[in-house]
Design goal:
alpha/beta; ten-stranded mixed sheet; 23% strand
Length: 247
Amino acid sequence: MNLDLALIGGTGLYNFPGLENVQRHEVATPFGPPSGAIVSGMLGAHRLAFLARHGEDHLLAPHRINYRANIFALHALGARRMLGVNAVGGIRADMGPRVLAVPDQIIDYTHGRFDSFCDVEGTKVEHIDFSEPYDAGLRAQLLAGAQRAGVAVVRDGCYGATQGPRLETRAEIARMRRDGCDLVGMTGMPEAVLARELGIAYACLALVANWAAGCGDEASISLPEIYANLEAATAQVPPLVRALLDG
């Protein structure tokens, strides 16, 4: 299949509106089943594949997602460019609720996840370069698409990937701020490194759902507010993706 883009949707993004000639693909992988069926269709003149990272009913916690199966299945369908949409908390002052950001770095605090295709008996170990975790070309195209679509985005940032599914303590966020993290989420890794192992150009579009613990001016984190913020931020994703593909 000739795919122009694969999109992995996070919390709040369980389908992609506007796709035509839609097909559903149940893909078997050597690593088990992916999060669900991959949906492909035409977005204008471009073919897009979409996968809901947590499943279409949001039944998979971040540490239970089969990241290897997800990336392998999309690659098997022909994905060579991939955009991960991730719900995050904001740490840096300009990363408040409803902001969209395109991070350029990542720090991995997760543990116990299968984070390499090499972690299979009999498979040759490959030591990939991950100094720049996101593909520079796709990031540039994403930023240019945002400008064409009139969607405001923060053009950089360090994503701190935590284990979840609980939110972080104030002390943990304070440590992450000292480490240089600007955003905090639960699904950025190992997705990015697995894409790199398969030679997929991968970038992240982070949707800020809330201030991280101890950041901003919020005394506490309200789940209804989180979902309202995500809904507002998610509404900006389709026009941005269209502009990215039309660029």
